[in-house]
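Researcher: We're teaching a course module on how sequence relates to structure. For the next exercise, students receive a sequence and then see the predicted structure as tokens, so they can try to spot secondary structure elements on their own. Here is the exercise chain.
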Amino acid sequence: MSENPPARADFRGETPVLALAPLGAADRIVLMDVLRGVALFGVFLMNVITVNSVSVMATELQLLSLPTAAADLALHDVFRWLVYDKANSIFAFLFGLGFFLQMQRLEARGADFESLYRRRLFVLLGIGLVHMVFFWVWEILHLYALAGFALLALRRLSGRDLLAVGIICAILGRVTAKTLQQYTGLATWTEPGTRFTDDAVLARQALSEAGDYFGLVRTFLDLTLFDYVANGFLVGWFFYALGRFLVGAWVGRHGWIARARQLLPGWQRLMRWTLPPGLVLEGAATLLAESPLLPEFAHRGYLAEVAHLVTAPLLATGYVAGLVVLYHGPLGAKLLAPFAWAGRMALTNYLAQSLVMGFVLFGVGPGLALAGHIGTCALTGIVIVAFAAQMLISRWWLGRYVYGPVEWLWRALTYGHRPPLRLARASR
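Model: And here is the predicted structure for the students to work with:
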């Protein structure tokens, strides 16, 4: 039994992943799945809370009338500090990393790499658009597909340029979109706020409680077209995702995940450099945005958002580094294993979370229509239980099948044939 030669315990160099000698593909994949699973939980939590927030599917008066209102507000601020834009940052980073590794593998095979990769992205784009129109208005898969096309075009950039463009896009994408919206007249043209008033919220609640699914689809499609596409937020969110994709590609090119155990001292240093300052600075940005104790001044909200968009990636980086260090600790792999179960079926679980969200918050079919009648504390408990169920179902499924159901569909539509699904068939 041979061992890999020792590597320098830092992050320098630009070794192609295919030339690396990691401890094993299984270890590398499990670590990525752990990170995906943790990010997926955070995305689930914030999506549910966002739908039930003021101006979307609840009014301020409804939420303040709940007996848990004080605790709900406090917990909401904690999640804004610790989870908001951190979970989706990690999720996008991992998609970018995964796409880059897939590109390397496909290109190394010498096949029609670009055609196959584009087909894969078109399938994901189709899944995302169906999801956005019929299930979840602010879904992210369509953005990941669009960012994937850009990553394909930019993959030949040098490591330094890849990282620089990634950081600029990640930090400034949404700020630029909001600035353009304010100074080009787009905000006026799209009637800002008319779809987020109490009257608009109550109208959506009425459709929900009446079980009018297609009425909700039309209402949210209108919201998407005017307050996401027409006002430029789509552009901002595209660059937001692309920046995280490019950073993920840069990490993949350097083999940080592939050689995580060998580079553990570097990960530990990165954790020390990013996690404590990220917590402090993002906490300050949250206070600037939310605290009633601070005096009001011109552009306070804009400044708070800019501060948040700078510090959120820093904290997300600290989370990734901390999870890598924890995973390689004495009990880390066992402790984090359930997240890997969910992470291996990230696409299936992400889409299934929209069904859970629809059942809890909307009144279509057997839905409970709890939007506006439930607070953040109760929703957090529901999300924890639902995600635990996803972990267990994922483990059961992957003990019998090679891929998650939507992962299998994605692969089948990409390659034009049905790959083996049952584990027994695939292992013969």
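Model: If you want an answer key for the exercise: The two ends are 26 Å apart (CA to CA). The mean pLDDT is 87.
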